[in-house]
Amino acid sequence: MVLGAVPPATPEHVTEVTPEVAQATAARLVANVERVVRGQRRVVELVVTAFLSGGHVLVEDSPGMGKTTLARAVARSVGGTFQRVQATADLMPADVTGSSVWDPGERRFAFVPGPVFADVLLVDELNRTPPRTQSAFLEVMEERAVTVDGRRHRVPDAFLLIATQNPLEQFGTYPLPEGQLDRFAMRLHLAALDVEAEQRIVREQLAGPTVEHLDAVLPAGRMRGVQAAVRQTYVAEPVLGHAVAMTRATRDDAALRLGAGPRAAITLVRCAQAHAVLNGRDYVTPDDVAALAVPVLAHRVVPMAGVAGGGASGPESRAAEAVIRQIGERLPVPVHP
């Protein structure tokens, strides 16, 4: 890496994209990622939905389930750069953002970018790094930039962070605070594979990493145009009101001691726009909101102590998801626009 090789400080040029092109691009992204991520269509669609909406993803699942393959497949599909960080207890903020290094030839300090300067960044076991380092991700997740030694450096505008955490092994971990969880558009769990899908994965991997054979399905730099087109997707007032009502209901539910804030409602609507585009529509329906309520809202709420739950993701996660489903079932659904 060359000293001082920092991405441009100005936003990337955005090429205008029509709704039809955005819809076709979304479908191609899902199909391309599915070529190597077998048996996980729902998860692939949700990751693409988050990416189209400009959001980040937290994958909560056991090791060896294909999280790295998923992140790399997304990066290759959009023609972007990929970086991976293994979170550990001794990981420092500068290991994430980059730092200033003395350049003897120029006789000055030059900024050397860290792994966050990528289109897709995978952070494995984010909860294994201490709070100080966890906080290094907050600025870049929200503002697409990092500040080092008082200078602000922009990361690629289409930046996507996919973080993972193991819900079973809690020794040596630092639970993610609510403020950081709120920066993730979605929390996902990989689906259990059937026998045929698992055998196919093993057979394909014996020949080598299948993700290496993926080609980009859209020109480099086009992703920002697609994301801009997604944000123009029509949201009728009753549908927007439904998303807000669902978010507000989490603050009054007796089973929750912490509900979701307005940022969650914004994210829910933005993801619903992307979900509509992925399904070939230029308008959002209540079904789009309902399909995303659990992955968008469940990690933003905290159940009351003692709420029963269970499953691979732990009792609190499953209990929160159950409450969100119950809220969705009891709220009146507006008529489709």
Primary descriptors:
337 residues; alpha/beta; Rossmann fold; Helicase, Ruva Protein, domain 3; 2 domains; five-stranded parallel β-sheet; globular
What's the CATH first level of the largest domain? Alpha Beta
Strand arrangement, major sheet: 2-5-8-1-9
The secondary structure category is alpha/beta
Order of helices and strands: HHEHEHEEEHHEEEHEHHHEHHEH
Describe the structure in your own words.
The chain has helices spanning 19-34, 41-53, 67-77, 93-97, 131-134, 136-143, 178-181, 195-206, 223-230, 237-252, 262-278, 286-297, 315-330, and strands at residues 57-60, 82-86, 98-103, 108-113, 120-124, 145-148, 151-154, 160-165, 186-188, 256-258, 302-303. The chain has 337 residues and is an alpha/beta fold. The strands form four sheets. Strands 2-5-8-1-9 form a five-stranded parallel β-sheet. α11 (262-278) crosses α12. It is globular, with a radius of gyration of 20 Å. The model is unreliable at 1-11 and 306-313 (pLDDT under 50).
Topology record:
Elements: H1 19-34, H2 41-53, E1 57-60, H3 67-77, E2 82-86, H4 93-97, E3 98-103, E4 108-113, E5 120-124, H5 131-134, H6 136-143, E6 145-148, E7 151-154, E8 160-165, H7 178-181, E9 186-188, H8 195-206, H9 223-230, H10 237-252, E10 256-258, H11 262-278, H12 286-297, E11 302-303, H13 315-330
Parallel strand pairs: 1-8, 1-9, 2-5, 5-8
Antiparallel strand pairs: 3-4, 6-7, 10-11
Helix pairs in contact: 1-2, 1-9, 2-11, 10-11, 10-12, 11-12, 12-13
Briefly, what is this?
Helix 1 (19-34) crosses helix 9, helix 2 packs across helix 11 and helix 10 (237-252) runs parallel beside helix 12 (286-297). It is built from 13 helices and 11 strands.
